[in-house]
Amino acid sequence: MTKFSPDIHENPPEYKIAINKAGIEGLKKKIKIKIGNSCSEKLCTINLYIDLDKELRGVHLSRLVNSLNQELNSNECFKLNDFLEKTAKRVLNTHFSSSRSEIHVSFEDIIEDTRFVLHASYVREKNGSQEGKVSIELNGITSCPCAKEVFKFYENTEYEKTPTHMQRAELHITLNSKYNLDLLYNEYLLKAISVGKSSFSDILKETLNRDEEYEFIKKTINNPMFAEDVCRKAYFYLKKELPSDIGLKIKVISYESIHPYNVIAEVSDLEEHRY
């Protein structure tokens, strides 16, 4: 007589409360992604989620991983949207009581000597509705306008020779659309990078000799920007480049050099951030 091991995941939970999102985070996989006419293999970090019915105790985690592996076993070079859509469909089909699946993929990349982290997410509903987001993280540097003006006030220094403190800043740009993510990725990524780089006091430099460092500091302290300034500038110029049906979120994190905390600024027209 064949014995079947118990499937505890299918048991009713003690507390019958539906779970909005459950799954796995931080799975590493190499994925071939088509960028324009070229194919590039990226080491990706992947998160997979579904919603869970109140009558079920747990998610079948192996089904999530197997759905991903089955898609990757084709060894094809994926368009970003195709990979996310196909994997989300597979995940949803393995959990019959779930109505929603979600996949997040992130990887580090370099375009035109600019290093950034790309995040892509895709949500699929059983009723066929879908939504995707593409976001990038860029690093730059800012200098403080307030410290500069206060120093100038007390020391009566010339503006261009007035010092101030500087810090690294991180800019997150998120594009949201109910349409194909490849449009966001291929059509607007370079624009987002260009606008983002120009929104800082200056961009980070990998190497500088002594004279270059002097010029870099001089330029940076004479283009002082609050985190709020960077946030508004990036939003203003990028919004002008986007169609009206593409949502935009800008977030800036300033890693303060003279304070024991970080500063953030955020502006968004995405639904999740309307109060």
UniProtKB/TrEMBL annotation:
Q: Which UniProt keywords apply?
A: Hydrolase
The protein's matches in InterPro entries, at most eight in alphabetical order, are given as: GTP_cyclohydrolase_FolE2/MptA
Q: Which Pfam families match?
A: GCHY-1
Q: Does the keyword Acetylation apply?
A: no
Q: Does Glycoprotein show up as a keyword for this record? A: no
List the molecular function annotations (GO) for this entry.
GTP cyclohydrolase I activity
* Name assigned to this protein: GTP cyclohydrolase I FolE2
